[in-house]
């Protein structure tokens, strides 16, 4: 798994027992996982077990941990890949096991929630679509972009809102629109 130097340093700091005791590590890791899900989460700065750790260090480690978690999910990494990568980053076996167990619990919980949501309600039904083609010449950083952008709006009806209409808006490039049309 390829990780940037900043992510590697942040994860190595998280692995250091002098910076993060085991209890602090487990709380911090749980907050990192939860921040990537749709849970209402507290900030890492609100936990008393993490108060003695420098805020800049917490931010850096949080960014590194969430980046690693996203990379693990993106690559659909198995246990051996996750564990060997963490061991390479100087995580002891106790921390590796705690991280992997939390990964399994959160992943299982998220899948159960998604299945529960799907079973409990009907998926939204698209009733109307509108779109607009924009052409972006420059972005906010004054870099030339010169590419089309599609603004798509889906009007939907959902079984849980007593058939009340809702609107889903998003912006996509031509390539993203082609992928959307290919899969749907």
Molecular structure report:
This is COMM domain-containing protein 3. The structure is a single chain. With 184 residues, the protein is of the alpha+beta class. The protein folds into two domains: 115 residues, no CATH class; 59 residues, no CATH class. Helix content is 51%, strand content 20%. It has a three-stranded antiparallel β-sheet, covered by helices on one side. Helix 1 packs across helix 3, helix 2 packs parallel to helix 5 and helix 4 packs across helix 5. The two termini are 31 Å apart. 14% of the residues are buried.
Secondary structure blueprint with pairings:
Elements: H1 5-15, H2 22-36, H3 55-74, H4 79-88, H5 93-120, E1 125-138, E2 144-157, E3 165-172, H6 174-183
Antiparallel strand pairs: 1-2, 2-3
Protein name: COMM domain-containing protein 3
InterPro entries: COMM (IPR017920), COMMD3 (IPR037355)
Pfam family, one: COMM_domain
């Amino acid at each position: 798994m390829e990780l940037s130097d900043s992510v590697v340093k942040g994860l190595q700091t998280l692995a250091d027992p002098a910076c993060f005791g085991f209890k602090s590590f487990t709380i911090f890791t749980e907050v990192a996982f939860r921040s990537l899900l749709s849970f209402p989460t507290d900030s890492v700065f609100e936990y008393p077990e993490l108060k003695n750790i420098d805020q800049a260090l917490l931010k850096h480690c949080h960014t590194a941990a969430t980046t690693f978690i996203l990379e693990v999910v993106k690559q659909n990494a198995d246990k051996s890949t996750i564990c060997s990568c963490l061991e390479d980053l100087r995580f002891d076996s106790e921390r590796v096991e705690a991280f992997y167990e939390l990964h399994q619990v959160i992943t299982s919980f998220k899948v159960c929630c998604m299945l529960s949501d799907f079973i409990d309600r009907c998926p939204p039904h698209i009733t109307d679509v509108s779109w607009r083609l924009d052409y972006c010449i420059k972005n906010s950083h004054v870099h030339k972009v010169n590419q089309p952008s599609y603004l798509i709006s889906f009007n939907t009806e959902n079984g849980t809102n007593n058939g009340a209409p809702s609107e889903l808006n998003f912006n996509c490039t031509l390539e993203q629109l082609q992928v959307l049309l290919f899969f749907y």
